[in-house]
Design a protein that fits this description.
The protein contains two helices and six strands; from the N terminus they run αββββββα. It has 123 residues and is an alpha+beta fold. The longest helix is centred in the last third of the chain and has 18 residues, at 105-122. It is globular. The termini are far apart.
Length: 123
């Protein structure tokens, strides 16, 4: 019972926060098993990525963002994951929400600059 309550509180907290978000093209990310993931959405709070392979809810992982020769590695936790599509040969694609954990001031500043850089390219 407490676990279900904690999930609904976490979900409500995530829904009540509305940090600025940007859809980012041309950025690759690696998660946990060094599989490539497409970054669909990125904010100072977390990221939404699409990838192959299962990441269990609540599991810790690392998101490594690479662009223009720069690399930023962030510690995360999986907050949701679901199958979004499958291919004819049986490959499954997952859309996974990641929450950043314990961002240092430097990492937060680097992430903010990273987001502004790619957000400006879309405008």
């Amino acid at each position: 019972m407490a676990k279900a309550h904690r999930k609904s509180v976490l979900r409500r907290d995530l829904q009540s926060r509305k940090p600025p978000r940007f859809r980012i093209a041309g950025v690759t990310a690696a998660i946990t098993t060094l599989q490539e993931a497409e970054v669909l959405d990125l904010s100072l709070e977390g990221a939404l990525v699409e990838h192959q392979g299962v990441l269990p809810l609540g599991s810790p992982c690392f998101l490594q963002l690479k662009a223009d020769g720069e690399r930023l590695t962030l510690r995360c936790s999986v907050v949701h994951s679901r199958v979004t599509r499958s291919e004819a040969e049986g490959a499954l694609y997952y859309e996974t929400g990641l929450e950043f954990l314990d961002l240092s001031r430097g990492a937060e500043q680097s992430l903010g600059a990273f987001i502004r850089s790619y957000g400006a390219q879309e405008g």
